[in-house]
Specification:
The chain has 312 residues and is mostly helical. It has helices spanning 3-10, 14-28, 30-53, 55-64, 66-97, 107-111, 114-148, 154-187, 192-203, 207-233, 238-273, 280-288; strands spanning 276-277, 306-307. 79% of the residues lie in helices and 1% in strands. Helix 7 packs across helix 9 (192-203). It is globular, with a radius of gyration of 21 Å.
């Protein structure tokens, strides 16, 4: 990455991150990202919506067929993790390449990344789901009994609104760390808890911008889910369910792709803001070009992170 490009990326704000993401996704590399979407993100969105659509039916299996219920849940989780790993690896790698000498990367070359990074990304995703699960269990085990003990009133409503806002702030913050950790797992050698610790450290200095960006993305996904639940899961007619289902499918796929690009750009902005970059020879040798056979792989002990000071 050229020095001028580093300065430009470092200075990206809330609007700039979204503008750059749209440019990369839908204009600069629209053919490549279209292929990635068809191969990985369409299946990911499809199984997510199918799971949401048949969730109520699956709940009826709890009382009649517990084994069948858990088999379906485990199968869904395995496929969701696998497709999330594929999507994350492909999109993060493609975005990273757009800022290196391999800007003309092809879909086949992008997919060739997966065998080298799938273990790291999968471990990070699993730990992320565990963190979210623990957070939700703790939050609801504390909040719900406490709220139930308060008499219904305007005060209770205000308290509920305030506590829900705090819950969402915590959830969005965990989402930031989780997504940055996913990018770290693709572009660096850390994974799991180590990647999440690094992601948490990277947010410092760009917390407000990162929070605003991920709050917008989270809100978009929540709105899509609300529309899907209202007009598809509980729809009034077959054809309206089909129509809204198709709309939600394409919206979810588009925002999922955009979300992966956004998280990669937030990673780059945070990295440069901390005056840390990965030396390009390391990036090309160890994590990108080595998959294509263009460069000899560099050993991690031979490469160090550079401290660079970017003058605004």
């Amino acid at each position: 990455m050229e020095k001028e490009e580093e300065i430009r990326i470092q200075c990206l704000g809330f609007y700039g991150i979204f503008r750059e993401s749209f440019t990369i996704t839908f204009f600069r590399r629209n053919k490549l990202f279209g292929q990635i979407t068809i191969a990985t993100i369409f299946p990911l969105s499809l199984i997510f919506l199918l799971h949401a659509h048949f969730f109520e039916f699956m709940e009826t299996l709890i009382s009649s067929e517990k084994i069948g219920f858990w088999l379906i849940k485990i199968t869904y989780f395995i496929f969701f993790i696998a497709l999330s790993m594929l999507s994350t690896s492909a999109v993060v790698y493609a975005v990273a390449c757009s800022y290196t000498k391999k800007a003309d990367i092809t879909f086949v070359e992008v997919i060739s990344v997966v065998p080298k990074v799938w273990k790291r990304v999968t471990v990070t995703l699993i730990w992320s789901f565990i963190l979210v699960l623990v957070y939700n269990i703790i939050a609801f085990s504390i909040l719900l009994p406490w709220l139930a003990s308060i008499n219904p009133s305007m005060t209770k409503t205000l308290l509920f609104g305030s506590l829900f806002a705090l819950y969402m702030m915590g959830f969005v913050y965990i989402s930031i760390v989780w997504h940055l950790a996913s990018v770290v797992s693709v572009l660096e050698e850390d994974c799991g808890i180590e990647a999440m610790i690094k992601g948490k450290a990277m947010v410092k200095g760009k917390t407000v911008i990162s929070f605003a960006v991920f709050l917008v993305m989270t809100s978009c996904f929540v709105l899509i889910d609300i529309v899907f639940q209202r007009f598809v899961v509980h729809g009034e007619s077959f054809w309206s369910e089909i129509g809204y289902g198709i709309i939600c499918f394409f919206l979810l796929s588009g925002f999922t792709l955009l979300g992966f690009v956004v998280q990669t750009l937030v990673y780059m902005v945070c990295k440069l803001n901390r005056r840390e970059i990965i030396d390009e020879s390391y990036l090309l040798g160890n994590h990108l070009e080595v998959y294509l056979g263009d460069y000899a792989a560099l050993r991690s002990k031979d490469v160090k992170l550079e401290q660079v000071y970017v003058v605004n």
